[in-house]
Amino acid sequence: MLPPFIVLDPILEDWLREDIGRGDRSTSGLFPNGQSPLGKAVWIAKADGVIAGLPIAARVFQLLEQSVNFVAIAQDGKPVKSGDLIAEINGSFATLLMGERVALNLVMRLSGIASATAEYVKAISGTKTRLVDTRKTIPGMRLLEKYATFVGGAINHRYGLDDAVMLKDNHIAAAGGITEAVQRVRGNIPFTTSIEVETESINQVKEAMQLNLDVIMLDNMPLSMMSEAIALIRQHSPQSKTEASGNITLDTIAQVAELGVDYISTSAMVTRSHWLDISMRISSYSALR
């Protein structure tokens, strides 16, 4: 879901302040004393991809000028082709110019993530496995980057450490073992909190199966070991979902999904994505008549 603006506004305002600083010298030099005429801008895709972030871009401009009219021609989560018209924006020239870079940067970044996510989703489309994102996000961008993976077709994993319990290798090492870690945690969390445990071997899988876990993660396992682990969990701990993780790429994701794992988690949609190129072109109303 798109986070509510009561959450997003302070983030967007910070990014606008960073870019505008003490004032937009270029725009204020063109239109001194706030006397900026009305104008129109259009956004055009310069590459094929999946769009994400248009409602957020609209909000960027509206924070500068409430009366700005941002009309989304494309739709979040839908593909566009190079040359497609993405949006039309009507407002003062000053607002269009001051908001351009922050709004474009956001949409290009998020659309790049959504585009990469769509490729991974397509690669496993013939299976029952669901693609899941991770917490490997840029600080300050997590809400938006996870929104982008969602509109690209993935489902969200934890947003933060307070979302659920995930006991990874270092937690297990610190506690002295999987069973000890789970027992300690269960005595200190709300009963509604789910518990996931990371495993790296068949012996760890067998130990985890005895603990009535919500999710058992199969981390960096060879395909043969992962196949054996999934079969064991299905037979002896069917209430536990399985999640494959570690070194998942477009070249390997289909092979992993074909093993029958419930979820595949990867950071690649975010960490290996490229920005989707989009340009903004501006003109006066009189020139458009």
Automatic annotation (TrEMBL):
Judging by the UniProt lineage, the source's domain of life is: Bacteria
**This protein's UniProt keywords:** Glycosyltransferase, Pyridine nucleotide biosynthesis, Transferase
Recorded hits in InterPro entries, A to Z, give:
Aldolase_TIM, NadC, NadC/ModD, Nicotinate_pribotase-like_C, Quinolinate_PRibosylTase_N_sf, Quinolinate_PRibosylTrfase_C, Quinolinate_PRibosylTrfase_N
Q: Which reaction does it catalyse?
A: nicotinate beta-D-ribonucleotide + CO2 + diphosphate = quinolinate + 5-phospho-alpha-D-ribose 1-diphosphate + 2 H(+)
What are the residue boundaries of the Quinolinate phosphoribosyl transferase N-terminal domain, all occurrences included?
37-111
MF terms from GO for this chain are: nicotinate-nucleotide diphosphorylase (carboxylating) activity
Which residue intervals define the domain Quinolinate phosphoribosyl transferase C-terminal in the entry? 113-281
| Hydrolase recorded as keyword | no
- Pathway in which the depicted protein is active: Cofactor biosynthesis; NAD(+) biosynthesis; nicotinate D-ribonucleotide from quinolinate: step 1/1
Q: Explain the purpose of this protein.
A: Involved in the catabolism of quinolinic acid (QA).
Q: What protein family is recorded?
A: Belongs to the NadC/ModD family.
Q: Report the protein name in the record.
A: nicotinate-nucleotide diphosphorylase (carboxylating)
What species is given as this protein's source? Pseudanabaena galeata UHCC 0370
